[in-house]
Amino acid sequence: MRRFALVFLIAFPIACDHSSTASPRPSEVPDATVTAQKEEIRYLALGDSFTIGTGNPPSQAFPARLAERWRAAGRTVTLKNLGVNGYTTDDLTARELPEVKPFAPTLVTLAIGANDRVRGTPVDVYRAHVKSILKAIVDAGVTPKQLVSLPQPDWSLSPAASSFGEPAAIGADIVKFNGALKEETEAIGARYIDLFPLMHKQAEAKMLAKDGLHPNAQAHDEWAAELFKSLP
Questions:
Q1: Of 22, 146, 158, 161, which is least surrounded by CB within 10 A?
Q2: Rounded to whole angstroms, how far apart are CA atoms 231 and 189?
Q3: pLDDT for 57-71, tens place per residue?
Q4: Over the chain, what HEC string results?
């Protein structure tokens, strides 16, 4: 008995010391995936008709379709879509930017430029406006990682495009405007998601709303599907 007691007394401190450094049981380790799923996504969409989904119900615009995909995946999402048909970079600066800080978004998408082109804004002036907008968003507390810019669709291929000028010239300008947006977005450390190849295919397939100018609901849903794969 004395020998057994001696062995027990020697072994017991060793067992206690081992438990103090042991890894937590699986039930005690936070599941990073579950934690991420519980974090609220506060999504602020800035832009013009292509953001609000002109020609379709707002519920079919890409921000709403993207939010629904996140919700289906178990995320909590608060969406505020500030897009307005006909808005230019000047309009967005005056009326949408003041909403950024109060909303405290965890994600901002920026899609603007078509109406600047319609109104004859030179691409270098558009670039300067975009640079100012991006800086203002970041100054409002949005980190570059939370900021995403998106191209304008290839509306030069729509039946209504000819009322705004020569379609080939419009198409060339769309590419220039999107290039300026991409460069300024990446210069500030934010992300540009290039949906334009998809948008061009949709335009060729005449995936248009009844107005003959804006993309239809299916096109918006396809944008949302691509964004869902690219965004956390």
A1: 22
A2: 16
A3: 999 999 999 999 999
A4: CHHHHHHHHHHHHHHHHHHHHCCCCHHHCCCHHHHHHHCCEEEEEEECHHHHCCCCCHHHCHHHHHHHHHHHCCCCEEEEECCCCCCCHHHHHHHHHHHHHHHCCCEEEEECCHHHHHCCCCHHHHHHHHHHHHHHHHHCCCCHHHEEECCCCCHHHCCCHHHHCCHHHHHHHHHHHHHHHHHHHHHCCCEECCCHHHHHHHHHCCCECCCCCCECHHHHHHHHHHHHHHCC
Strand partners, 79: 43
27: pLDDT strictly greater than 60: no
Q: What is d(CA 111, CA 174) in angstroms, rounded to the nearest whole number?
A: 13
Degrees to nearest 5, angle at CA 69 with 77 and 34 = 65
pLDDT given at position 24? 39
Contacting residues for 81 by C-beta, under 8 A, at least 6 apart: 45, 51, 52, 58, 61, 63, 64
